[in-house]
Amino acid sequence: MPPSNRNRAARAARPQAPAIPGELTEADLPEHDLRDEGVYLALAFGGLDLTDRAVLATEFEGCTFTHTRLTGSDLRGALLSDVDMKNADLAGVRVRDGSLMRATVTGSRLTGAVWSACTVRDTVFEGCRVDMASFGYSTLKNVVFRDCNLSEVDFQEADIRGVRFEGCNLERARFHRTRAEKARFADCELFGVTGVESLKGVSVKTTDAQGLLLALANAMEIEIVD
């Protein structure tokens, strides 16, 4: 590939940063509580308690979530674009048929969260707990997981082609019937992953390969002895 084409490919793979307005309105309750088909524009959600909400088709654009608590909320059909989440608590959040576009998620907790049949695009997860979460049947494009705990995460039937995993713990992650071509794993823990036969076409650093080889041997019922 000519150098110019390589550069274009690298640029295409880099997630697009969220466009956050320079001035945001501070969100407050009850005025900015979540409601069905609510539209939230250029709001700074600080340490608000939005736990256990159940709303349909909400839209967030150009918003920040800092120490916001959304634990256990059901956000079916939620559309989030150009958002920044820092130290937010999204543990147990359930999103189906929604989207997360042009987002940064930093130092946040997504333990047990479910993003099912969603589109996640141009998003960077960094320093997050995403253990036991599910992205089943979702499409992830231009997504980076960096220094995240992804142990026991479920990517069943998901499309993670080209996704980058950097310095992540992916022990016992599930990749059953996952589309994963050109996904890249670097400095990751991959011991105990299942569905390893679906990882055809991925890129793995030499230091990460042992975990995948053991998983592959287990899937093929190969006994490894000293």
TrEMBL record:
Segments for region (Disordered): 1-21
UniProt-listed Gene3D superfamilies: E3 ubiquitin-protein ligase SopA
InterPro entries xrefs: 5peptide_repeat, Pentapeptide-BTB/POZ_domain
Biased composition, class Low complexity, residue ranges: 1-19
Coiled coil residues, start to end: none
Pfam family of the protein (one): Pentapeptide
Source species, domain of life: Bacteria
Cleaved signal peptide residues: none
PANTHER family from the UniProt entry: BTB_POZ DOMAIN-CONTAINING PROTEIN KCTD9
Descriptive protein name: Pentapeptide repeat-containing protein
Organism name: Nocardiopsis endophytica
